[in-house]
Specification:
Layout (H helix, E strand, L loop, with lengths): L6 E8 L2 H13 L5 E14 L2 E15 L3 H11 L8 E4 L5 H11 L2
Antiparallel strand pairs: 1-3, 1-4, 2-3
Helix pairs in contact: 1-2
Length: 109
């Protein structure tokens, strides 16, 4: 049985649905992610280069394993249009054993 703490939920915002879809497809096809969900609308308010900025963004929820994080983060940076992309990795504290087993199968080459 897999342990949920060996898996991560990675949050990434980007500027468009097309970019989010491209990142998601590549990460899943390269087995860096088992699944990516795309939330079409996230309104962000943030500081950037001395100014307060606001923008409509798209949020990616990326499910992966702890082992894939070291490969996932640089790949996201390659595919992402931002100078400093948001890449936040959260450990899972729980998930169904069936889902975790599916993730292992999906991420294994």
């Amino acid at each position: 049985m897999e342990n949920a703490s060996n898996f991560r939920l990675v949050l990434v915002t980007t500027n468009s649905f097309d970019n989010a879809q491209n990142i998601a497809r590549i990460l899943v096809s390269e087995r860096l992610a088992a699944c990516c969900n795309i939330m079409l609308s996230a309104y962000s308010i943030y500081g950037w280069r001395g100014a307060i900025r606001e923008s409509l963004e798209v949020m990616l929820f990326i499910k992966t394993s702890e082992e894939q994080i070291e490969f996932l983060e640089p790949r996201i940076r390659e595919l992402h249009p931002y100078d400093v992309p948001e890449i936040i990795s959260l450990p899972l504290s729980g998930a169904s054993s069936q889902y975790l087993n599916w993730m292992v199968e999906t991420l294994t080459v």
